[in-house]
Amino acid sequence: MAKVLVTMPDEFLNRVDGLAGSEKLSRSELIREALKNYMRRLSKSQIENASKNADLLDEILK
Question: Which long-range contacts (CB under 8 A, 24 or more apart) does 7-11 make?
Answer without folding.
Answer: none
